[in-house]
């Protein structure tokens, strides 16, 4: 019965101590406190008193007075948190693996009356309930989930124990699995699985590193090509701007030369200077014959420079004849036409440069 000798550390029943004033504690042969009329109940203990064989009351900690002979202390319950070791037992998981598992149970008596009269041996009942619940919960899980879901497994065991032990006046606070022992072959398989998983992660990480490296190299090449194309574009723009400026400068210089030449022809001895220039150009052109091509077009008398100059000056003289009254001087009009043509050609050249 529950009122037998108190158990060792972690037992549910404790021997109550009764200490009369100036006297040592007196106990009955059964280990329970004797009725000495005046009793002192220790803190965190509940003494269940029967009067004439029936439940009478529960003594509170401190001073209590009982009726001699009629009242008897029948049970002594500890209200402290109690720790119970659940023995090791075998259980089969969902994938048919046999495990050796043990645990620790933490509980407390909430109702001394139910704990005294609701069950014969509360400690044994709770231990057996914890073992059966543990086997039942392990049968619902595979081996891998047993290690990953220990917290949920402990919570399920606590809920099952509290539902069954409510009528016993006992509340299970928590349950912890201490050790899980697997068969040697299963342990070797688990180690091989762990090693394979690590190799897999290493291979995946290496492949991801290779991929990131290739992506970075491709991005670098892409940026380099973009920058090179932009540099080439800027170079072409600058080169085109330079060529346009050069063409414009040449056109302006040519126009200025034509203006100066036209002004010089209208001065004294301008025709003599023109004849000298034509003779020099003829001699220079004749010296370059047959240098660039085998096909040559020669005048009838190429060695007669005088006739060539006379012919050129005849054309020039026709342009410089005296103008008819009321008309413009041929030279001045020719110069004016030359300057106007030059201005027109200069404007066309300038427009072409702007369009390009």
UniProtKB/TrEMBL annotation:
A GO biological process held by the record: mitochondrion organization
GO cellular component terms given for this protein: mitochondrial inner membrane
UniProt keyword terms in alphabetical order: Mitochondrion
UniProt subcellular location: Mitochondrion inner membrane
Gene3D superfamilies assigned: Band 7 domain
Domain Band, residue spans: 36-194
SMART domains: PHB
InterPro entries linked: Band7/mec-2_domain (IPR050710), Band_7 (IPR001107), Band_7/SPFH_dom_sf (IPR036013), STML2-like_C (IPR032435), Stomatin_HflK_fam (IPR001972)
Listed Polar residues bias regions: 329-343
Chain's role: Mitochondrial protein that probably regulates the biogenesis and the activity of mitochondria. Stimulates cardiolipin biosynthesis, binds cardiolipin-enriched membranes where it recruits and stabilizes some proteins including prohibitin and may therefore act in the organization of functional microdomains in mitochondrial membranes. Through regulation of the mitochondrial function may play a role into several biological processes including cell migration, cell proliferation, T-cell activation, calcium homeostasis and cellular response to stress.
Protein name (record): Stomatin-like protein 2, mitochondrial
Organism (species): Chrysochloris asiatica (Cape golden mole)
């Amino acid at each position: 019965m529950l009122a037998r000798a108190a158990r060792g550390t972690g037992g549910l029943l404790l021997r109550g101590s009764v200490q009369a004033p100036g006297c040592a504690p007196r106990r009955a042969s059964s280990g329970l406190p004797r009725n000495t009329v005046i009793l002192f109940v220790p803190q965190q203990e509940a003494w269940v008193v029967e009067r004439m064989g029936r439940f009478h009351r529960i003594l509170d900690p401190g001073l209590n007075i009982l009726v001699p002979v009629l009242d008897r202390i029948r049970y002594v319950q500890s209200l402290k948190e109690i720790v119970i070791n659940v023995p090791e037992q075998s259980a089969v998981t969902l994938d048919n693996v046999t495990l050796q598992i043990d645990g620790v149970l933490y509980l407390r008596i909430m109702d001394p009356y139910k704990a005294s009269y609701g069950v014969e041996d509360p400690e044994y009942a709770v231990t057996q309930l914890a073992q059966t619940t543990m086997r039942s919960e392990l049968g619902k899980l595979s081996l891998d989930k047993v290690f990953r879901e220990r917290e949920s497994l402990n919570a399920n065991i606590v809920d099952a124990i509290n539902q069954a032990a409510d009528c016993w006046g006992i509340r299970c606070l928590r349950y912890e699995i201490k050790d899980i022992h697997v068969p040697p072959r299963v342990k070797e398989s688990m180690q091989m699985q762990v090693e394979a998983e690590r190799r897999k992660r290493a291979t995946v990480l290496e492949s991801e590193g290779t991929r990131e490296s290739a992506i970075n190299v491709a991005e670098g090449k892409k940026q380099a090509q973009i920058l090179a194309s932009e540099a080439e574009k800027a170079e072409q723009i600058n080169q085109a701007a330079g060529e346009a400026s050069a063409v414009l400068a040449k056109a302006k210089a040519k126009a200025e030369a034509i203006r100066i030449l036209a002004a010089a022809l209208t001065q004294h001895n301008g025709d003599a200077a023109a004849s000298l220039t034509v003779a020099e150009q003829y001699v220079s052109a004749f010296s370059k014959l047959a240098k660039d091509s085998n096909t040559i077009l020669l005048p009838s008398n190429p060695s007669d420079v005088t006739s060539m100059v006379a012919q050129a000056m005849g054309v020039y003289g026709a342009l410089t004849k005296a103008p008819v009254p009321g008309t413009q001087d041929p030279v001045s009009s020719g110069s004016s036409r030359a300057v106007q043509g030059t201005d027109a050609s200069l404007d066309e050249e300038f427009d072409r440069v702007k369009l390009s």
